[in-house]
């Protein structure tokens, strides 16, 4: 039997002295326990129980010894519930927290000791901090407490359980690591036939991080008093969940290429409707196209434009609409299924679709920058608008600002400019208030606009993207900038003057799909990294060639990998076989005999000429050749920093010693937790020690993590590994509430400090009646209105826009916007640790009284810097 058993023990049970703590009592009639019988009973007593000692706590511990025999004929493996009902009136239930008790004939309790029995008495004393009661909570569920306002969903417990309508929940944050978030409203649902409804009493905002940059890309707001209704709905609301673009079908148009941006599922597997429109914000996606989908993967585009960004903005006759608000795309909808955003570009009929951006100058060659493309062509000469990024300047040391100059047509709307970074994420650049070309633009056909955006001083590179929409098309140009120092000015107008447009000669042969085969092995793509090598075997090479005129020369050319390509090479005439797919396509094949392959490796390529006199060479491929001498690897070492901020890219270094009598050919892998995350390009390893630079972008998981690193060298089919080493990662920024005294700690593992708190910063929207007051651990007021505070007004305009203050032997660099700024903000940095107790308040300027309600949603952000530690060196 596995059901809970309720038994009445009706013999005389007398507790005569309630003031005796931890006393031992005996039940001596017909009770028998054969083995170890010591039980711990925790009792919460009501006022109605006679207890002589007034100092007795409401929770007491008693040891009860049970003897004699109690015949229970069946076996019970679950929690028995017993009522004690004789001379002491204890009517509450007994819950045994360990279910491993076996009760059989004679009530034998074997090998079980010190079981805790909790007796809850009728005075309703709570044994835990929860104010919301629930039973049978599942392992993947997280109970929403009645007074809980904000929740960050745990990947292990992605389902929020609501058991009462009277909850204060208003904010839900979904990290990128959560894959299946939901809210279960089963306990509060209303049903009528097959229709299920749930009422959301107060406004609920849900933010979803889809990229791991910690900044939300999707924000959903359900207005207060909204009723959700669905047919055959289980009352579980799926929160925004990222889906693959392969699961949907975007609207197709002739000569148009769609590029998916964000695909989310939200609501339920059945269609849900709302009596109040719900707001969906796609952050940084203003101007993109959007639509909805359900069980049918076809996306229905939303074309209706909202009359306003409000619940009243949906036009008559529509169930949804869209509107651009700043840099965000906003969707108002009365139903939930799935939603998608995408951009579209125009391709020329008869050619392959292209997503390159000629407005980027074909790839900038200026210092530290290169061109990138994002959407349709924007060069002023095609279907798109004139849109170019002319200049970019940055200052990451003092001003921490990126300045961008964009050129666009006079009659066009102002482009949107965004800056993508690895640390901050996506930042929308703003038009500077004082436009330097305002007067010049009056009579010009091409306007010059200047934008600014903030940048983190630790960025090593960033991407600038300018976007402009015409109808359903998004046109864009981009530049990628490498940060090479404190500041730099890049002028792309000079670069573009030196770049000539590429001319495509259609008469030139085109070489595709080059493959190689070692002996009788499997054919593999030649221009991709390979683990194969040749060992006394022939090497066969294949390719497809398309040429409008007849092939006159087809050669497989090859040479030793150490030889200069401009020097001597060998060639073999390749076989040419016409393919049936067209009258201009041919299959080429050729084989290099094993005796012509020389260690440590070969490089080879295909040369083709046609009777139009056109010549072309393919890209060069390489393959390793096992040498005749023994391959002797003396060892491999790996150097890596022991700690780093998560989400950043590290560059461990491997050192391979080659003890062979000559060079060898191969590559080195970086292995993290047993999985190869980076493979170096294949190369020659000369005798002695060789250095190999590796690369690893650490995952973003939002907590301190440890990873096992190894380097593995693969040479001519042989491999050698380093011993495992361990690297710790940590969040670069931590948010702490300022509603109470803030304790800032360094990050440590065991007795080792791996990161120090280096910067404190915070901000809030000021209505003109509030200001910050920041107090250090020793009670010194650093920022505030009082004359005793070290910084009382804005530091803008000072050298470096900061003020240096000293407390004890520690120097702080303080930046403060001043209380007159609409976005009041401050930052405090130091080369030493900022750990300690900090008091951050938002005071009212009317009497400088702390404004508690304004502090509820304002965090203090703590930035961490890895402690400079020696590299770990692990060898094989």
Characteristic terms for this protein:
70 strands, 876 residues, eight-stranded mixed sheet, globular, mainly beta, 3 helices, disordered N terminus, ten-stranded mixed sheet, 46% strand
Structural account:
- With 876 residues, the protein is mainly beta.
- It is 2% helix and 46% strand.
- It has three helices and 70 strands.
- β56 (705-715) and β57 (718-721) form a beta hairpin.
- Counting DSSP H or I runs of 4 or more residues, the number of helices is 3
Uncertain spans: 1-130, 347-383
What's the overall average pLDDT, rounded? 77
Strand content: over 45%
Major sheet details? 10 strands, mixed
The total beta strand count reads 70
The chain-level structural class is mainly beta
Morphology: globular
- Rg for CA atoms: 36 Å
In short:
2% of the residues lie in helices and 46% in strands.
Secondary-structure blueprint:
Layout: E1 6-9, E2 24-27, E3 39-44, E4 59-66, E5 81-84, E6 94-96, E7 115-119, E8 141-143, E9 150-152, E10 159-161, E11 171-174, E12 182-184, E13 190-192, E14 195-200, E15 204-208, E16 218-222, E17 226-231, E18 236-242, E19 256-267, E20 272-282, E21 289-293, E22 300-301, E23 320-325, E24 328-336, E25 338-346, E26 369-372, E27 387-395, E28 401-409, E29 416-421, E30 426-428, E31 430-431, H1 438-441, E32 446-454, E33 461-470, E34 473-482, E35 487-491, H2 492-497, E36 510-518, E37 524-525, E38 533-534, E39 539-546, E40 551-560, E41 570-573, E42 575-578, E43 585-592, E44 601-610, E45 615-617, E46 621-625, E47 633-640, E48 643-645, E49 649-650, E50 653-658, E51 664-672, E52 675-679, E53 683-685, E54 688-693, E55 696-697, E56 705-715, E57 718-721, E58 725-730, E59 733-737, E60 742-744, E61 747-749, E62 752-765, E63 770-775, E64 781-783, E65 803-807, E66 810-816, E67 823-829, E68 836-844, H3 852-855, E69 859-866, E70 872-875
Parallel strand pairs: 1-5, 2-4, 3-7, 8-10, 9-11, 10-12, 11-15, 38-46, 48-58
Antiparallel strand pairs: 3-4, 6-7, 12-18, 13-14, 14-17, 15-16, 16-20, 17-20, 18-19, 19-25, 20-24, 21-22, 21-25, 23-24, 26-34, 27-28, 27-35, 28-32, 29-30, 29-33, 31-32, 33-34, 36-37, 36-39, 39-43, 40-41, 40-44, 42-43, 44-45, 44-46, 47-50, 47-70, 49-55, 50-54, 51-52, 51-53, 51-56, 56-57, 56-58, 59-69, ...
